Amino acid sequence: MALAGLLWCIGALLAISVAAIPAARHRWGTPAVYGSALCASTIGLGLALASLLGGGALLGALTLPVGLPWLGAHFRLDALAAFFLVVVNLGAAGASLYGLGYGSHEEAPGRVLPFFPAFLAGMNLVVLADDAFTFLFTWELMSLTSWALVMAHHRRPGNAAAGYLYLIMASFGTLALLLAFGLLAGPAGGYAFAAIRAAPPAPGVAAAVLVLALIGAGSKAGLVPLHVWLPLAHPAAPSHVSALMSGVMTKVAVYGAVRIVFDLLGVPTWWAGALVALLGGVTAVMGVLHALMEHDLKRLLAYHTVENIGIIFIGLGLALAFGANGMRAAAALALTAALLHVFNHSVFKSLLFFGSGAVLTATGERDMERLGGLIHRMPLTAFVFLVGSAAISALPPFNGFVSEWLTFQAILVSPALPQWLLKFLVPAIGALLALSAALAAACFVKAFGVTFLGRPRSDAARQAVETDRWSLATMLILAALCLVAGILPGYFIDALAPVVRALAGAQLPRQGELDWLTIVPVAQSRSSYNGLLLFLIIAFAAGLGAEAIHRWASGVSRRSAPWDCGFPDASPATQYTAGSFSQPIRRVFGSVVFRAREEVNMPPPGDLRAAQMHVRMRDVLWDAFYAPVAGLVSYVADRLNKVQFLSIRAYLTLVFGALVTLLTVLAVWR
Amino acid sequence: MAIGLQLLVQICQMALVLALAPLFAGYVRKVKAHLLRRQGPPLAQHYRELLRLLRKDVVLADSASWVFRVAPYLIFATTWVAVSLVPTFAIGLIFSYAADVIAIVALLGSARFMLALAGLDVGTSFGGIGSSREMLIASLAEPAMLMVVFTLSLLAGSTQLSSIAASMQASDVGLRFSIALALIGLVMVALAENARIPIDNPATHLELTMVHEAMILEYSGRHLALIEAAAYLKLLLYVSVIACVFFPWGIAISGQGPAAYFAGIGVYLLKLAAGGFLLAVFETAIAKMRVFRVPDFLGAALMLGFLATLLLFVTLAG
């Protein structure tokens, strides 16, 4: 059975994790750990793929006699779990393969190697868990191992603070999930998911569970306003772990939300859909605007994760709204869009983080203002990063476009929704989605253009060398996957059909058998997209143009200094930087969203001091939500500080008072 | 056999738009010149310019990478494919089901992505200023365009341009307020996307407000010819979209035979003549705006499209 095989793989990962503690001291430790993790996750990927495509033959459940004595550890492999296991293990295999090359630059392998396989095992286990205890336990395993990986380079400035914030947010999220499962289990304490499914909660309780699940899973996934830790913690980890956290762990959080909201809560309510979709829309735009203001390459990518999580949650919210109104075909469309984006994002976000890791290895720089011109020194990395940038910007013929296109199609069938709030809300969410897609393209023109194009802005960038073969192989595989999923999306949509059927009660029409591999989500006359044909025609047109030009036009090229309208300047400092590139967008959006203020200090004529410009931006959400809480906590801590310096009489009085209070409470309770 | 014939018509459309695009741009320039009481260059001037550029050598900047050299081909091919998916003289051509209007917008987005990267590639300040401003304009114009697309798709129940044109041709749509809003929004987007006055001036160099010309400043020879051709094609695309969606009369339906096709081409040429004339009059009558006024202009387009969509969401039942 596939489930047993997967559990063996997870067991192997945990064993590798233990063995890595002594092995990390040796030179062979790094390739051994990553190589064996690669084997385990590749087998896991194969098993998950087989169970997803096998039509239910390999699915099943299993109870192990570990964990709580009266409960045991329930594991279950259904279509939803199989799909997310594909995502997890694909990302895990990619990160392990990449780690074979990247890991050799690690200065403290003892801080990375033991936690890496345990992190992989934790993510696999969350997806397989079939009772609340196992789910929360493995969720914490995933959180703590990833926290340890974030803290791997804890001496670098900012990393310790990032890890601290991550720990707080992760505990907070787990607390919310704990409460959600407590409410779901009810007074009888039926913690197995099967028992929860059999007794769906009352509407009031269901609403509370929904909000708690959104807080719990959303804080891990990076839903606004719970996203603040993500752009700090994800980039702090080594790059292959950043890729895993951004590309895969956020998807496990999405899995948690889907499992609770779609599976355990039973029939959804329409306002739940409105809430989720609105959160998604706001998250998408806030994430991409933050990313545009960012100059740190890895942090920019982390903010883009926030954006893409928003797009996924838009799809999930629409699916809930359709499901609540009994529109099963539309719900299937929206859910397919969301799940396809889960897969697509895990592929291109891993690719982009791997690319940023290659840049980091080659130059030691994450700050884009000190990079530039890397395309000449690292041609292959630049090429795959370009593919990833095009895919994440939702440009055809790559895969990101397909899932956003499906989300747009889902928005376009929503006027049929009966609720007025939704009628007003959904067009606004469509506008937010369109805005975030356009801004994402601007952001990746900046990310790729400033990092890889132009002229080098520092010596480190001038002396960069191409990265190692393992890393390149990983990135090339993922880039190829971006293209394949973009031009043959029909097969990927078909693979999602069993998941969607289980959750939405319907599925999209089978796409694989349509003429010329077109995808047709609703009906031919309504909408269709054929990535393969588009790709071929564009290739044909470009080839035709190139051939005609080579035959009839001048083929001579000369090299010379740049023209620059007659004012060429040899200094690379005259180029546009990341800050200057995003300055117009900062002026348009930033003055509202970030309260951006520009201060120009222009010395009077005759004064020889340099002119200075300062840009001040504030994170409005941080000021609104986090600063008050942090202030309250330190205020209370200050007050309670006095308790440390009391006399022995006062302490005895306190103890006595506490005892009396407790006894009184107990007496009244009885 | 039938597929062969359909392919032939599709190839005719591709050839037609490629042949017409420089002529249309030249026609607009000619009308503008006449409105200013000038003689203006001959209609065929753009063809001559393209041929001259093709014959010239390419001068590449030292710091240019392969992105700079590949981009013109991709920009040209993507734009050409996008415009050949738009119904010009006939609807329901064989390739038109490969991409709906959202995909066409995204294809133009791909071309713009490459162009903006090419602007950054050499590492000069002019290229950067052009790319940065182009992406600012696009970041507002693309959502506005998508909102207009939403309006049309909701009315027609389809995102296929062919189906939208067919449904607009049928009389049951009637006159709706949303259509008027969408038309205004689309015209505003078209002006911005094609670097026309009042957003940008296609006839300037070395002006602090230029956008499109700044991005392609380093291009020369055959590369420049391809990018110029792509710009002409894009202008033709927007005019064709407006013509086929809002003024769908006289458009042929695929499979009606050569006579209908020729009639369709004739009507299409008339629509282009009218559209180009209006564009020239508009451009002559209005002044160019400052770059930081552009977001207001495009924000208005976005709001118009959003209002049109919202109206439809509220009025369309079930």
Descriptive tags:
heterodimer, A: 670 residues, mainly alpha, 4 domains, two-stranded antiparallel sheet, 24 helices, 5 strands, 4% strand, globular, B: 318 residues, two-stranded parallel sheet
**Count of helices of chain B?**
11
Q: How would you write the strand order of the largest sheet of chain A?
A: 1-2
**Span from first to last CA of chain A?**
52 Å
How would a crystallographer describe the biggest sheet of chain B? 2 strands, parallel
Report the C-alpha radius of gyration of chain A, rounded: 26 Å
Helix content of chain B: over 70%
Strand proportion of chain B, as a percent range, falls in: under 5%
Low-pLDDT stretches of chain A are none
Description:
The complex is a heterodimer of chains A (670) and B (318). Chain A is mainly alpha-helical. Chain A has four domains: 1-197 and 221-266, no CATH class; 268-341 and 353-539, no CATH class; 576-602 and 611-618, no CATH class; 630-669. Chain A has helices spanning 2-23, 29-53, 79-102, 115-128, 132-150, 159-185, 193-198, 203-221, 230-236, 239-264, 270-293, 297-324, 328-363, 374-377, 379-392, 399-412, 420-452, 459-462, 469-487, 489-504, 531-552, 578-593, 620-640, 648-669; strands spanning 60-64, 73-77, 557-560, 597-601, 612-616. In chain A, the strands form two sheets. In chain A, strands 1-2 form a two-stranded antiparallel sheet. A two-stranded antiparallel ribbon of chain A has the order 4-5. Chain A is globular, with a radius of gyration of 26 Å. Chain A starts with a helix and ends with a helix. The longest helix of chain B is centred in the first third of the chain and has 34 residues, at 2-35. The radius of gyration of chain B is 19 Å and the shape is globular. Chain B is an all-alpha fold and 318 residues long. Chain B starts with a helix and ends with a helix. Chain B has helices at residues 2-35, 45-55, 66-84, 101-121, 125-156, 161-169, 177-193, 212-215, 221-246, 258-285, 294-315; strands spanning 58-61, 90-91, 252-253. The chains are: A mainly alpha (670), B mainly alpha (318). At the A-B interface, helix 15, helix 16, helix 17, helix 21 and strand 3 of A face strand 1, helix 3, helix 4, helix 5 and helix 9 of B.
